[in-house]
Amino acid sequence: MAPEYAIDGLFSTKSDVFSFGILMLEIISGKKNKGLTYSSNSYNLMGHAWRLWNEGNLNELIDDCLRDNSSFTNNNPREIYRCIHIGLLCLQRHPDDRPTIATVVKMLNNDNTLPQPKEPGFLIHDGISPDRERRDTSSINEVSISLLKPR
């Protein structure tokens, strides 16, 4: 959920771009944005990706099934790095700093130089130990029983 929507209830096309950036990182990493913590900083996936971007260690973000793919090993992993870069551009804190979805499509379809991303909005540091899974906060109602009866 885009920061401006979560905090102020404002929704725009740039909110969808934010969600698209999260989705790209989830596909590339094979992990959910929430549910686990990453590395010693206990960040969500977005914070983890930002930290790895700054360290220049993007291979750690890429899911093993993508890394083991022959097209990844035979070719330069540049396309996946580019997708991570675009994903981070979609996660900018201010909507005006995010590209439009039309611009994202253009970025994905050509090799032009991309602007450097700024720190994403809504980095969550939850203080949970990095090697401990976060508990799912949703509940399951196991009490209700629905029986269908004909009239």
Written overview of the protein:
It comes from Stylosanthes scabra. With about 150 residues, the chain is an all-alpha fold. The chain has one domain: Transferase(Phosphotransferase), domain 1. It contains seven helices and no strands. α2 packs antiparallel against α6. The radius of gyration is 18 Å and the shape is globular. It starts with a helix and ends in a 42-residue tail after the last helix. About 10% of the residues have low confidence.
> Taking Cα atoms only, what radius of gyration do you get, to the nearest Å?
18 Å
Q: Classify the beta-strand content into a percent band.
A: under 5%
Q: Portion of residues in helices?
A: 40-55%
Summarize the main sheet. Answer: none
User: What is the SS-derived class?
Assistant: mainly alpha
The CATH C-level name is Mainly Alpha
List low-confidence stretches. Answer: 125-138
Short description:
With 151 residues, this protein is mainly α.
Main traits of this protein?
single chain; 151 residues; mainly alpha; Transferase(Phosphotransferase), domain 1; 43% helix; 0% strand
Furnish the topology, listing elements before pairings.
Layout: H1 3-8, H2 13-29, H3 45-55, H4 64-67, H5 70-74, H6 78-90, H7 101-109
Helix pairs in contact: 2-6
Domain Protein kinase: 1-114
Biased composition (Basic and acidic residues): 128-137
Region (Disordered): 116-139
